[in-house]
Predict the structure.
Amino acid sequence: MTVGLLLTCQGAGFLFPAGGGASRSTPVRSSHGGVLSVQSAKKAVLLLGHGSPISEANEPLRQVADEIRRRGLYDLVEAAFLQFEEPDFQKGVDILAGRGATEIALMPFFLYTGAHVSKDLPRELDEAKGRYGRIRFRMTRNIGYDPRLVDIAVERIEEAAAPGEGVGDGRAAPADRHPIEAESFRIIEEEIDLAGFGPVEREVVKRVIHATADFDFRDILAFSPGAVKAGCAAFARGAPVITDVRMVEAGISRARLGGFGSRLFCFSSDADVVAAARRRGMTRTAASMRKAAGLLDGAVVVIGNAPTALVELIKMAAEGGPRPSLVVGLPVGFVGAAESKQALMDSGLEYITSAGRKGGTSAAVAAVNALLIECASPALNL
């Protein structure tokens, strides 16, 4: 890694950036009596958006910056705007330089290679280079065309076409279901008796069975007495939803979550979580619960894969740490799954879980999506 110098004249109180910056430093006395702080390089990212006079319209770029920052791949990440909003390009560079950036990747968050990308940004870049000669700047490509954008476009189109998605109360009435789905639910209702469950619990059980084709879930799914009420209250206030693995995160309906103002988080693949897991001798999913500590209090936690994540979550709560509003704990497997779910039922936390080894991503996702549908219904009476 490149080593730079941060020259600090302590007597006069001036700070002279000299191409360096990092979280660790070793002070060295100069021949003039000042202190030279030798620091490792800091890699920074500046996301560049158009900017809007409507403040809410600028939030998505900040959310992207937050997500990139959270992944721990770069030392510094900021968002800046070409017009209407602060910080602008140059102030964004100033912020990163002031925090010790030695290398700044400038990422134009634009679909099209228009005047901003082809003319304005190169001009701004030249100005920044003139002001910070010791910082290495590099401009990335703009977003442009990417096949993944097609997937997002199709997802948005399907959301608009799907009954109950993003409109009305968010609940798909039986009459609006796809014929195959409607027939599946008819078979489920015909073959099992759900009289022992409350109205919302019945819908959760049916959707889990529909997702897994496993009627055993009627007998093994378990709800704490306040689970439904706690979950709906959490969604109503826009509580975050934290998952153990990406597959669970991918399956939860963002359209339905968006109706409540909730956001999804999954930290298990983050670079800092991988490093922490290795350092602490724990699984990545367990370490991800530790990273999520600041979000967990009052959140909805969904675990569909890793018993170790559930055990860590319960341990944190037992030690006086954050307490989620609801834990959908459905890890699957032969090692630790049954024990972790029993621990959840004994923890005093509100839960939706299953007895024994069965569970998994499909079951956890189905349970959450069913709860989202029911919590959005104006007919809900808790």
The two ends are 58 Å apart (CA to CA). The first helix runs from residue 59 to 70.
